């Protein structure tokens, strides 16, 4: 089988070597399309392959239409909002992700962003410490749980938001109210997937409830934060801060208007570590080989 790795933002070289090893050991052929700049390159590359590994690459209905032989697509990562899952399902294509494989890298970035924002983005001046502050976790999946554990080690008081009590929630201080989470926490870390249900859910009503000096950390998707609500909250409350791993659509305008109240990484870097690339990339390759060898679809999302 031909397995395409299509990554506009490439994996670390050692991860590509590892993927190649798994694919070739299983008797398949690896095709590599990295750092492509044009959709046409992706459309051409998918034409004769049987499986695809992608990162945040946009797998639209047009790409799926061009991928005539593809049977399985694995998103090497957690969020698969970049894939037109409905179009895949209609074509009988299996879509999988690799949950948990890059979570630690994202959780470390969330902690790093909290420190960065508390220290005035490393500009001269008096900042504050994380120890003794309260952190709210919105989204207690693989990333949220890791952020919580690391924050405890830093001396933070952690509260999680949940609407159901599962075993993983039990040793944590929890609230069933998002309003309560935002109004009682100095920091809130957003770790939720982007779905039609979550888009814009972090709105003015929540952000503006944060206590004085509150800081919102978003290592999820930009769409989960309501941009107008964020703008209004930051305008009315110069003490509030927002750090994100995906810039808002109007980031240049926001930066001009809000200065040190806002920070966005230049390019999404939550999963940009050698370790995360290895974990997610190799898991994706193995999942595809397992599918072709024995029909395994353990991580299927459609
Ligand atoms: C994910 O959903 O796994 C992360 O956002 C990482 O995305 P990336 O592979 O594009 O860096």
Describe this structure in words.
The protein has 302 residues and is of the alpha/beta class. It has two domains: 2-101 and 272-294, 3-Layer(aba) Sandwich (Rossmann fold); 103-264, Rossmann fold. Helix content is 37%, strand content 17%. It has helices at residues 13-25, 39-45, 61-66, 85-91, 103-118, 142-153, 178-184, 204-207, 227-236, 251-258, 274-294; strands spanning 2-7, 29-34, 51-54, 72-75, 94-97, 134-138, 157-161, 173-175, 187-190, 215-218, 241-244, 262-264. The strands form two sheets. It has a seven-stranded parallel beta sheet with strand order 8-7-6-9-10-11-12, sandwiched between helices. A five-stranded parallel beta sheet has the order 2-1-3-4-5, sandwiched between helices. Helix 8 links the parallel strand 9 (187-190) and strand 10. The radius of gyration is 20 Å and the shape is elongated. The mean pLDDT is 97. The structure holds 3-phosphoglyceric acid (3PG). Residues 9, 55-56, 77-79, 102, 268, 270-271 line the site of 3-phosphoglyceric acid.
Features:
302 residues, alpha/beta, Rossmann fold, 2 domains, seven-stranded parallel beta sheet, five-stranded parallel beta sheet, 37% helix, binds 3-phosphoglyceric acid
Could you give the order of the helices and strands?
EHEHEHEHEHEHEEHEHEHEHEH
- What is the spatial order of strands in the main beta sheet? 8-7-6-9-10-11-12
Low-confidence stretches: none
Radius of gyration: 20 Å
* Average of pLDDT: 97
Biggest sheet character: 7 strands, parallel
Number of helices: 11
Annotated CATH topology of the largest domain: Rossmann fold
Question: What gap, in angstroms, lies between the N and C termini?
Answer: 22 Å
Number of domains in the coordinates? 2
Bound ligands, named by name, code or SMILES: 3-phosphoglyceric acid
CATH class of the largest domain: Alpha Beta
CATH H-level superfamily of the largest domain: NAD(P)-binding Rossmann-like Domain
Strand content: 15-25%
Q: Which of globular, elongated, flat, extended, rod-shaped describes the shape?
A: elongated
């Amino acid at each position: 089988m031909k397995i395409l790795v299509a990554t506009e933002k490439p994996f670390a070289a050692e991860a590509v070597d590892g993927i190649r090893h798994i694919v070739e050991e299983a008797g398949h052929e690896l095709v590599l399309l990295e750092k492509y700049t044009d959709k046409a390159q992706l459309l051409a590359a998918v034409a004769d392959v049987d499986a695809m590994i992608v990162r945040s690459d946009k797998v639209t209905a047009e790409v799926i239409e061009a991928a005539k032989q593809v049977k399985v697509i694995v998103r090497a990562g957690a969020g698969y909002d970049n894939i037109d899952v409905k179009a895949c399902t209609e074509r009988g294509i299996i879509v999988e992700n690799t949950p948990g494989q890059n979570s630690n890298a994202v959780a470390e970035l969330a902690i790093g962003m909290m420190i960065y924002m508390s220290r005035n983005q490393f500009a001269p001046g008096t900042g504050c410490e994380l120890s003794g502050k309260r952190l709210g976790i919105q989204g207690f999946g693989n990333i949220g749980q890791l952020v919580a554990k690391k924050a405890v080690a830093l001396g933070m008081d952690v509260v999680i938001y949940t609407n159901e009590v599962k075993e993983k929630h039990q040793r944590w201080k929890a609230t069933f109210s998002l309003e309560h989470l935002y109004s009682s926490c100095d920091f809130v870390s957003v770790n939720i997937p982007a779905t039609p249900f979550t888009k814009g859910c972090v709105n003015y009503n929540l952000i503006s409830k944060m206590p004085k000096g509150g800081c919102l950390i978003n290592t999820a998707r930009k769409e989960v934060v309501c941009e107008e609500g964020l703008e209004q909250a930051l305008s009315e409350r110069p003490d509030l801060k927002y750090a994100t791993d995906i810039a808002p659509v109007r980031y240049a305008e926001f930066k001009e208007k809000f200065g040190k109240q806002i920070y966005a990484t230049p390019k999404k870097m939550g999963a940009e570590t050698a370790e995360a690339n290895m974990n997610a990339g190799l898991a994706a390759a193995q999942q595809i080989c397992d599918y072709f060898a024995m029909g395994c679809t353990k991580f299927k999302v459609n």
